[in-house]
Amino acid sequence: MFETTYRFLRFPGGKARAFTTSYDDGVGADLRLMELMRQYGIRGTFNLNYHVVSDEDIDVAEKPTYRLSRRQLATYYQDFEIAIHGATHPFYRDLPTASAVYDIVRDREGLEGMFGRIIRGHAFANGSYKRETLEALRLSGIIYARTVGSTGGFVLPEDFLEFHPTCHHRDPRLSSLLDTFLAPARYAVYPRLFSLWGHAYEFETDGNWSLIEEVFKRVGGREEVYYGGMEEIVSYCLAYRQLVFSMDSKRIHNPTATPIWIATDRTETESICIAPGETVVMDER
Ligand SMILES: [Zn+2]
Description:
Largest sheet: 6 strands, parallel
Low-confidence stretches: none
CATH topology: TIM Barrel
Order of helices and strands: EEHEHEHEHEEHEHHEHEEEEE
Bound molecules: zinc ion
Structural class: alpha/beta
CATH superfamily: Glycoside hydrolase/deacetylase
Mean pLDDT: 95
Strand content: 15-25%
């Protein structure tokens, strides 16, 4: 089915590649990661636990591996996309489903109130879930949930409630995956999404802040790459999936409120934007 394949998807601006990060737990070291993200033009998502916070503000320089206070979370993360990560950071696989629902709802309600925005993303605490968890998330208004199962690839998920990321920053394949991600594409170009995940406190405990700075230096500030938060990218893909096609697939209608870019030939660069409510007619596909 044409509308369920991502073959013709192009990210905003007509770009065939997107890069995003997903970092967990809301610790002091996130602030240094945010600085690097700003410096290199990287965008991504921070996954927070509403009920696992420090009671009082922490000294970030002294205790970078500690959880921030709610006041600090509300202050420091305003410029960044937020997702829920389980109000109490539980193993959903081992919880009664009703308890998981309660945890999801409390986290979403708490963080939405704290930030004054709608939050529709999730990252599984401890990477733990079972089949019922996916339904609990869906019924709680969550549109994607990031797992800890690295794919080593750049394919967009069919089911965003089991969003397997490309890799963890400790993955020994990281450098070669970046090579592949950034390599020129030649023929029948599918969109590529690089989703990197981890915990910023690991850069402290492993003593390797230079690793993530090198990654951002290589991948950041590129004309051919789109940088966005995970929920933003998933929302865009879901809008793409709502495109309506004529029988011969030459007439395409965008019924959404989102401008949507699609590829118009086999190369990476040729694309058009279909405005909200617009119908375009393609000469040949
Ligand atoms: Zn966590």
